Amino acid sequence: MYLQLSNPYSMKTSFAQGGASAQKSDGVALFFFEDTALFTTQSAAVRAAFPASAGNFDSGDFTGKKGSVAQCYHGSGKQTKRVYLVGLGKSEAVSAEGIRRASSAAARAAQRGKVKHISFEVPETASLNTTEISEAIIEGAVLGVYAFDKYITKPADASKLEAVSLCTANKTIVPAVKAGLDFATKVSQGVYLTRDLANAPNNEIYPETLAKRAQAAGKESGFKVTVLDKKKIQALKMGGLLAVNQGSVRPPVFIVMEYMGGKKGEAPVVLVGKGVTFDTGGISIKPAPGMSDMKIDMHGSATVIGAMSAVAKLKLPVNVIGLVPSTENMPSGTAFVPGDIVTHMNGKTSEIDNTDAEGRLILADALTYADRYKPQAVIDIATLTGACMIALGSITSGLLGTDDVLKSRIKKAAQRTSEHVCELPLYEDYEDQIKSDVADVKNSGGRPAGTITAALFLKKFIGDYPWAHLDIAGTGIAPSAGPYSPKGGSGVGVRLFVDMLRNWKKDGG
Questions:
Q1: How confident is the model over 378-426, as pLDDT tens digits?
Q2: What are phi and psi of 319, to 5 degrees?
Q3: Distance of alpha carbon 306 from the chain centroid
Q4: Residue 502 needs a FRET pair 20 to 30 A away by CA distance; which of 153, 237, 318, 396 works?
């Protein structure tokens, strides 16, 4: 059965019984290990099934080296198959991440070759179980060929990969293969949704349309969505969200998403995503070069929406709440200005030192709102500080928080998904940088330790619950394409959150 992804074009995933040579797809991918004995056995079998592959082996051009992809052909005319030989390196060192990267490389090669449907024969190795292998193949292949190109007018003969399938001749592993395929497809749907939202221009995605996309995702996936308008936001006295919104002609929204797949009455996990749909910096305006990337300043909200969609489709046995405060940050005659004092939902006040430190202001109200759920834990995710990008680049997200068990859960999920995190300290000594003479706290502590002082600002607005903060300023707005992610909005955080929630009870001890 085909499972369709929510993207401008249709990507399908499926399972087919039988080995690679029995597949009707126009491309097949075969994984190889570099170990001499294994490689000899594998290459002999492939030579028999696909005689044209002999040259790749006889020449020594393909040895199963990690990251390598070689191509040969099978058949003729319209029945010609492109066969991709994909190296995984040494069998004892193979990892899920290695398989993701290898399957992405093969899928990208297939797409360049105008292959419409590629089949991956599922390999077997002692270091990973079949479900893990199958998940990794689908994630790598599907996520690797993503492109946000719906606004590009293409020629009539434009070719894109349309379908990815898994196959095996080993009937005993079929249930595990299907389980991995189903899980990875639904997670990939969530990542695609997040990437689509994050990469969309401001004239497509702004607070009201972001809310509509969340509602559509809830209807499709099976979670409840409530959208609070400006009047309700005012009634809740969300001063941070209202202050940032002052300069925009578009009203703010506060999106509440609820998925109750766990036990009735069990405290939920709350995910909070920054939803600044375009950030000019406000009166403290950003420089023009690179400002177009600020359409992605709502990546945290996109991650939460994508993760909620995946969790609901997977029917994970957890209760999860998603909260998204959303607004634009615009300069105008009505915009908030440095020196203003804002009163937040919990009654605390913040002095505005820099209007470009706006994300923490809207998150402060959302973190206060989260307390009403008496949650097990709250995690916020945001493209919050340029300082995090300077410290950790575009590879690793910053992690800060108050609870060691929660931080451990996140780190374990990060390790399994290779969505890397690095913990930074929350020492009270840094609080002097955000001390205000006229309010409870100042919204900017300057350039030194900017990621830490931003988190310390947020800490003042959390309730009596375990809390963690993920700064994805570098990882959410990628300066170049990764092994299976695009330039721009990367979709970071969706796989991490789903994995964390999937293993919530296991990792809590």
A1: 999 999 999 999 999 999 999 999 999 999 999 999 999 999 999 999 9
A2: -100, 125
A3: 8
A4: 396
Pick from 365, 364, 331: nearest CA to 459? 364
pTM: 0.96
Tell me: the pLDDT tens digits for 99-118? 999 999 999 999 999 999 99
Those residues whose C-beta lies under 8 Å from the C-beta of residue 89, and which sit 6 or more positions away, are: 33, 34, 64, 65, 66, 67, 98
Cα–Cα distances in Å, from 491 out to 150, 218, 225, 307?
17, 18, 21, 10
β-pair partners for 86: 31, 69
Q: How far apart are CA 122 and CA 61, in angstroms?
A: 23
Active-site residues: which are they?
Answer: 286, 360
Q: Return the sign of the alpha-carbon dihedral for residues 416, 417, 420, 425.
A: negative
Residue partners of 387: CB distance under 8 A and separation at least 6: 447, 449, 450, 451, 454
**Secondary structure letter of residue 425 according to DSSP:** -
Q: Can you tell me the distance from the alpha carbon of 301 to that of 303, in angstroms, rounded to the nearest whole number?
A: 5
Residue 121, SS3 per DSSP: strand
- Identify the structural domains of the chain with CATH numbers, from first to last: 3-173 (3.40.220.10), 191-507 (3.40.630.10)
